[in-house]
Amino acid sequence: MLKLLCPRQYVAKLADIDLNDLRQKGICALLLDLDNTLVPRDEDRCPEEVVRWLEGARERGFKLCIVSNNTSARVLSLASSLSIPAVPRAIKPFKRPFLQAMGLLGVGPAETAVIGDQLFTDVLGGNRLGLYTILVVPLQGRDFWATSLVTRPLERLVLCFLSQRPDKGADLT
Ligand SMILES: [Mg+2]
Q1: pTM value?
Q2: 20 CA distance to ligand 1 middle (Å)
Q3: How far is the CA of 81 from the centre of ligand 1 (A)?
């Protein structure tokens, strides 16, 4: 179970993700979480830095899709402002939304990375399908109440445990 919660990489921000390295690993598609990964949860605009990063990824030939547990209206309006396809109301960590997103992009698991700020939705869901998972530190913004009350303390516990394991993934920093 713990292995399924272990991201392949843990980065402070999107800009710290080495896209060339991902290409070398054969990855050409990025499934992106929305809230607190691309947009602070209590805002409805993407920070300029994130917009630039998305454009850079697209210029390098990455296919992008947003996979979000949030409501359709918020997800679709943000996704269309970024010109990125989206799977809203995803119910991550279920496998189905990730499979749906890969279907939209026409890619397989070996070519796909999941990028998100939550272990129990983004990382767990991606790992269940054998996708390359990247955990990012949440953008500033308030979490959904259940996330801050229940999920974040559990995440801290798991991350603390993982960081002490001698056999942690080589990429995990
Ligand atoms: Mg999130």
Answers
A1: 0.88
A2: 24
A3: 18
Band of pLDDT at residue 87, cut at 50, 70 and 90: very high
Question: Residue 30 Cα, ligand 1 centroid: separation in angstroms?
Answer: 15
* Ligand 1 midpoint to CA 21 (Å): 24
pLDDT > 50? residue 173 = no
Let me know the angle formed at the C-alpha of 44 by 39 and 47, rounded to the nearest 5 degrees: 45
Neighbours of 7 (CB within 10 A): 25
pLDDT in tens, 65-82: 999 999 999 999 999 999
**Domain coordinates in residue numbering, the chain:** 2-164
Q: Please say whether the structural domain 2-164 has been given the CATH code 3.40.50.1000.
A: yes
**pLDDT exceeds cutoff 70 at 13:** yes
Residue 151: its H or E element: none
